[in-house]
Amino acid sequence: MVKSNVGDMPPEAMRKEIFHALVAAQDQEMSVPQSRRWIAERYNVSEEQVRLIESEGLDAQWPPL
Fold it and tell me: Tens digit of pLDDT for each residue in 15-47?
């Protein structure tokens, strides 16, 4: 079952791992919506959490940026 509580975010190390996987998926020419769904399922988080992690990673310039 996928989590839906945005307030229950994973720890920073896991958020960075999720961000890295998201960037890698998009680099492999997966569409943004498709990559968000795939990552949400893979890491058992909601798509909203993936969007928040994506935004956090972009703002903080997390690798692999």
Answer: 999 999 999 999 999 999 999 999 999 999 999
Cβ within 8 Å of residue 6, ≥6 positions away: 46, 48, 49, 52
**Residue 7 Cα distances to 17, 25, 49, 54, angstroms:** 19, 25, 9, 15
In angstroms, the CA 27 to CA 10 distance is 23
Query: What pTM was computed for the model?
Result: 0.86
pLDDT at 37: 98
CA angle 25, 7, 15 (to 5 degrees): 30
